[in-house]
Amino acid sequence: MYIRALAGLQKALGPDHTSTLATINNLGGLYRDQDKLDEAEQMYTRALAGREKALGPDHTSALHIVNNLGLLYCYQGKLDKAEQMYIRALAGREKALGPDHTSTLDTVNNLGNLYRDQGKLHKAEQMFIRALAGCEKALGPDHTSTLNTANNLGILYCNQGKQDEAEEMYIRALAGCVKALGPDHTSTLDTVNNLGNLYSDQGKLDEAEAMYTRALAGYEKALGPDHTSTLTTVNNLGSLYCNQGKQDEAEEIYIRALAGREKALGPDHTSTLDTVNNLGNLYSDQGKLDEAEAMYTRALAGYEKALGPDHTSTLATAHNLGLLYHDQGKLDEAEQKKALEPNHASTLATVNNFENHLDNPNQRQWKFRKVIRKIWRTRVTK
Predict the structure, then answer these.
(1) Largest Cα span, the chain
(2) What are the contacts of 77-86 at 24+ separation with CB within 8 A?
(3) Contact, 235 vs 274, CB < 8 A?
(4) List of the chain residues with pLDDT < 50
(5) Could you give phi then psi for residue 381, rounded to 5 degrees?
(6) Could you tell me which residues the TPR repeats occupy (predicted)?
(7) Residues with Cβ within 8 Å of residue 377, at least 6 apart in sequence
(8) What are the extents of the domains in the chain?
(9) SS3 state of residue 184
(10) Mapped to the 3 state alphabet, what secondary structure does 268-316 carry?
(11) What is the pLDDT of residue 129?
(12) Do the beta carbons of residue 106 and residue 68 sit within 8 Å?
């Protein structure tokens, strides 16, 4: 319908009319939801250029597309470009609409998601708390925007290890979404998936499996088997199977997630790299050390490029590779990976644990692996 409307509007009103540009923007949103990210970027870029020309760069209609571009860049893993868009949108919306307008709060929430993905957890918390308070005041505690922010704050609390606070946010979001949207809505399923992550962290593996299975069935029905939301739950289910010792099932699930993410997002997207790293963990546990090394090396190079050397995902994968080198008897390589950014606050505890492990070669490193993977999982939750 959008394509039909666009053709008609271009013919009747011209390519630069605001109604034409609105349809182009809407088509970009459709492509984004369909995981056609390149096509979405083309639509958003075209719509933004047209609105800037017709209305100026600070008009709210232009800022709306700027915010959408930020969201798209996040999906594409282009986090620096996303941050530029969000900061521009936030400054413009605060000036034009005020700090408490719902459109402003939407960008505040988006910045919180971005900062969380970048590992800037304190800044993310500030954004989410501001957005939640604003949405509660402007829209009420049961509005879907409020519930979405509560869900996002739950994810952050999980990443910070605040499990009780996370569970409180998730249960609030789930109850509200079921009431407002129904049990099969994708926003409801997002929270179901996140509750699965929390229960997995708490060691409640049966409860986690029930959540993941419910979310996966819902996503497959609503979005299809190859949608990125579906694949996120597939990846999470693979991690659960690993924790349950179901290695064959885990491998099957991870391979599905990796193939789907490579196709939908590309081989270098951080979500793709998450699954690559997970496969490295699995192969290491299975004693397939060469395959594990290939996965870790690929994940590490990708994380360094996409997130930088100081991100927790980069650091944890470096340590995973160091542990693998130790298993292979490559002690020089192990020491090199262990010493990555040795003075970084996020690595001091893990470095000390690794050094203790080297001093006690007969002690199995399963406890340290658990610590490392707990750090790495800050990126798994979506």
Answers:
(1) 78
(2) 77/265, 77/266, 77/268, 77/269, 77/270, 77/271, 77/306, 79/114, 79/117, 79/118, 79/306, 79/307, 82/114, 83/111, 83/114, 83/118, 86/110, 86/111, 86/114
(3) yes
(4) 339-382
(5) -70, 130
(6) 21-54, 189-222, 273-306
(7) 201, 239
(8) 1-98
(9) coil
(10) CCHHHHHHHHHHHHHHHHCCCHHHHHHHHHHHHHHHHHHHCCCCHHHHH
(11) 98
(12) no
pTM of the full structure = 0.75
Count of helix runs (H) and strand runs (E) in the chain: 19, 0
Picking from 122, 203, 126, the residue whose alpha carbon sits closest to that of residue 160 is: 122
Look at the block and give the residue holding tokens 């997630």. Answer: 257
User: CA of 90: how far to CAs of 99, 337, 369, in Å?
Assistant: 9, 39, 40
* pLDDT of res. 191: 96
Q: Give residues with Cβ within 8 angstroms of 100, minimum separation 6.
A: 134, 137, 138
Helix axes 270-285, 247-265, angle to 10 degrees: 160
Using CA atoms, how far apart are residues 36 and 325, in angstroms rounded to an integer? 39
pLDDT at site 198? 96
Residue type for 185, please?
Answer: H
pLDDT at 27: 86
- Does CATH place domain 1-98 in 1.25.40.10? yes
Question: Alpha-carbon distance 206 to 170, whole Å?
Answer: 18
Instruction: Give the Cα separation of 289 and 291 in Å (integer).
Output: 5
Q: State how far the Cα of 160 lies from the Cα of 166, in Å rounded to an integer.
A: 9
Q: What is the pLDDT of residues 192-216, one digit of tens each?
A: 999 999 999 999 999 999 999 999 9
Pair 249, 241: CB distance under 8 Å: yes
The residue written with tokens 């918390």 in the block is 125
Strand ranges (DSSP E) for the chain? none
> Treating both helix axes as pointing N-terminal to C-terminal, what angle do 60-76 and 79-97 enclose, rounded to 10 degrees?
160
